[in-house]
Here is the input.
Amino acid sequence: MGGPAAAVGRLRGGWDVTVLERARELGEVGAGWSFAPNALRAADALGVGEQFRACSVPTEAGATMRLPDGAYLMRFQPEADQVLLANHRADLQRVLARHVPAEKIRTGCEVTGVRQDGAGVTVIRRDGGEMRADLLVGADGIHSTVRRGVWPDAPEPVFQRILCWRGVTAPGAVWPVRGFQTWSRGARFGAHPLVGERVFWFLTVRQEQPGLRFDDDLGEVAARTRGWHKPIPGLLAATPPEAVLRHDIHDLDPLPSYAKGRIALLGDAAHAMTPFLAQDACQALEDAVVLAAEAVGADSVPQALDRYDKARRPRSQQVQRMARTDPRLSLSTSGATYRLMPAMTPPGLHRHGSPQERPPLGLGPPVHAPRPGAVMGYRVPMVERARRRPRAGRPHRRRAVPKRPGFTRHIGTVSGVSTNGITTSSTARHSTPDEHGSRLRAAP
Ligand SMILES: Cc1cc2nc3c(=O)[nH]c(=O)nc-3n(C[C@H](O)[C@H](O)[C@H](O)COP(=O)(O)OP(=O)(O)OC[C@H]3O[C@@H](n4cnc5c(N)ncnc54)[C@H](O)[C@@H]3O)c2cc1C
Here is the structure.
């Protein structure tokens, strides 16, 4: 996704671009994903915002949190909560690919090595051929060949002790679904509506060893969510078993640089992160905007890439760190953590509808910690509740979220408070200025 996005940005900046893709074709790959508004703003800057919206469906999963028995920890409130946009990876990939001339996308073309000199970059392909360019963007994912070639000492991806299954239901089989997440101890299920009356779902679980295989992935998901509330069983029943994806979740330690000379890293190749903030691909889109904008009017390619590195690394690595920290609590298997957390979220502060919907304090199915310090559209139930607690005898007043310039204004919904030491205000300091989007839009 980062590759085509970068290509769209570079084409917009007036460059001649070629995309090299290892896969034989750009097919129906992946499942669904969700995007916070910063992704949409980046898509707008790239000139693909309208098509992005057209292939996406609003989802309430960022602010509707349930327990396995169906009780609500938190319910989406239209006037207060941020909708995310969900789409199918293949649909978004098609949108981006449509903006790149077909002859500029070379599929079945695997890069096996790169080298650079003062005048340009040489790309070595698996078929033995070589190509020359002024600039190379390594958007080749978490196991990036470009990263290994240019930064041989960079650390390898780190397994985060998380396993994730994903699936997409058959069209119309379970509809409508507004988007929700369901939290259990050491596990989280989520669902987002997609265009075509399909529903994307995921189950993430704590898993100590990577590489586990299952004869029947869908059966395994069903077994692990047995007895959970509707529509979870229906979603699983409506999913073609062969389309279920299973991934060990890895991320990267922060890299010392995203650019060297005429070569830059982008997306997962630069800052792969756990998907817990739904920001991974959003950050790749931001990368693409900044990369293209920095090239507009730059004196040289290395200078433009240096500026790209300086603009993108602090912000994306802050998000990367938060995405690594989040599941340590939100996927905690610790009984103590899960017993403690309901006690820290008194029923009076819960955003359930009626008292009957509330689980008794500390009872009910295992509940892991509400996610602390979350940003990017996923909010912090505990902090939010505390902020919204009406004082005795006084009407409840909603506190305005301060608007800040840059993408962050549209990402963070919680400011200055967290239980894990990471605050959105510290993220804001590293925000990517709006200016990059404006510069790209103004490019000739
Ligand atoms: C379970 C899971 C759930 C996720 N959920 C979300 C979500 O909700 N929201 C979100 O924003 N993100 C999510 N992500 C993350 C998202 O999938 C990635 O951040 C995003 O795909 C990164 O895009 P990319 O282009 O950098 O890398 P990739 O999507 O990995 O693309 C890399 C491309 O490079 C090609 N390639 C690799 N090596 C070579 C080579 N040597 N030569 C030529 N081509 C090569 C590959 O074939 C591939 O097409 C999730 C990830 C996972 C695993």
Notes: The chain has one domain: 2-328. The chain has 14 helices and 18 strands.
